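Chapter summary example.
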Amino acid sequence: MLFLGLTCLLLHVSLVFGTELTFELSDNEKQCFYEELQKDVKFEIDFQVIAGGNYDVDSFVTDPQNNVLYNEKKKQYDSFSHTTTMEGTYKVCFSNEFSTFTHKTVYLDFRHGDEEPLIQTMTGATALTQLESSCVSIHEVLKVVDDSQTWYRLREAHDRTKAEHLLERVTYWSIGETVLLFVIGLGQVVLLKSFFSERKGSVAATT
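The structure predicted for these 207 residues follows.
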């Protein structure tokens, strides 16, 4: 059973292709990524802003002739799929030019091509053996696990950034309150001291 699991895991890893990355996008900056694709190839794009500002970014995709295939403004996350109609270099761009002082952290997952059959005999009309059926089942479960891990990793990074930002605001607010309390306490002491000083002067004048 362990050998079966390792064999199916290797088959699953060998079929994974594409690009998955996380990058920084500074304010007033645009970054583009290029991919050379053949005709009639399906590609999919998933992106999410995991840190910075209002967690939004402009994005667009163009074909080799600079025709716009996808164009969205101030999106926190989105998905896009397209089947190429020509061979050439396709461009995926993310823009933070609308922001003047906040930089963003963007996650990008770019996949292209059709997944090949896990087992070559699956293309025929023959029935699968018990071993082949087990490999297919494990393969499908591994894909679900991989997607779940990616989602949880992005959620964790997003929540961690929010928590750090909240901690920073609470720290500054606490420091401000401490300084304000110190100033108010000092002011009250000075004010009370001035009251006693005026009373002593008035008593001396009457005598």
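To summarize the output: DSSP finds two helices and eight strands in the chain.
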